[in-house]
Design a protein that fits this description.
Elements (H helix, E strand, L loop, with lengths): L4 E2 L8 H15 L8 E6 L4 H15 L2 E5 L3 H9 L6 E4 L2 H9 L3 E11 L1 E6 L9 H7 L6 E4 L4 H12 L3 H4 L3 E4 L2 H9 L5 E5 H4 L4 E6 L8 E8 L5 H11 L2 H9 L9
Parallel strand pairs: 2-3, 2-4, 7-8, 7-9
Antiparallel strand pairs: 1-3, 4-11, 5-11, 6-9, 6-10
């Protein structure tokens, strides 16, 4: 069952910018009027604030209703594969989009909408201080825990790749505690239930945690958020218009303002 449904958020963008995007897209597509429909969008949980902001902006500009149901990219992809009703999927990993493409569970070409970074964070009052993974390991005491998203969840996979790349997988294993998604990791650190955790930069900026250090991006695959139309969409034309919006300059400006970056060349 899809959970954590959210239609509106506290974030807003300038209506004139979105109006300009909408006018341009209507002219380009030859459509007589903007969409007025209901879209089911499944974004990765690390996109909670951004997806809510984009959904509200799109709704204000077009009259469409965007219902967003959040979860880990892996769980959302499995739900789509199992036939869950949805129009657009936004994943924190291109791997899950590729898997759905291979199973013909998406249609058309996916779009990379943003890029992120991976950080290690601690509770604000934590005694921990370190510039990298090696130094953090040296500061850990028996029983200290590091929260990490479960296997298959993109944030967890990026973190495990980083540990593997620097040769610390076995050394960190006794300290790692798996959680269902990156937002659960963030909450565990914020509440002091874990001494540190692997999260995205955009998550850290929205919580009461202290950034210890960024993970070297060369130690893991690029963190790219990719959106695709679900093959079972009941309104693929409306889904395509929303996908076009996610790739627009206006949407990218909003994502940049929320701390995301854009892939080089985009």
């Amino acid at each position: 069952m899809l959970t954590n449904v959210s239609r509106r958020s506290r974030y807003r963008v300038v209506p004139l910018l979105l109006g300009a995007w909408l006018l341009g897209s209507v002219v380009a597509c030859g459509a007589p009027e903007p969409p007025s429909t209901r879209l089911a969008v499944l974004p990765a949980s690390s996109l909670t604030d951004a997806a809510n902001a984009l959904a509200e902006a799109y709704s204000d500009a077009t009259g469409a209703t965007v219902d967003s149901s959040f979860g880990s990219s892996s769980s959302l992809a499995r739900q789509i594969r199992d036939g869950a009703p949805a129009d657009v999927f936004i994943s924190a990993s291109t791997d899950w989009i590729s898997e759905l493409q291979a199973g013909r569970a998406t249609r058309g070409q996916p779009v990379v909408i943003a890029q992120g970074e991976l950080l290690v964070v601690a509770q604000q009052e934590s005694r921990l201080s370190a510039p990298d993974l090696h130094a953090l390991l040296a500061n850990l005491q028996p029983g200290d825990t590091i929260a990490i998203a479960d296997p298959g969840v993109p944030a967890g996979e990026y973190a495990r790749k980083a540990l593997e790349s620097v040769g610390l997988t076995e050394e960190y294993a006794p300290h790692l505690v798996g959680l269902s998604n990156v937002r659960a990791v963030l909450r565990a650190v914020e509440l002091g239930e874990a001494h540190a955790g692997f999260v995205y930069g955009t998550d850290a900026s929205a919580a009461r945690v202290r950034i210890l250090f960024p993970i070297d991006s060369s130690t893991h695959p690029p963190i790219r958020y990719q959106a695709a139309i679900v093959a079972q969409s009941l309104d693929p034309m409306a889904a395509q218009q929303f996908l076009d919006y996610l790739a627009s300059d206006e949407a990218r400006q909003q994502l940049l303002a929320l701390g995301f970056s854009m892939p080089s060349g985009s």
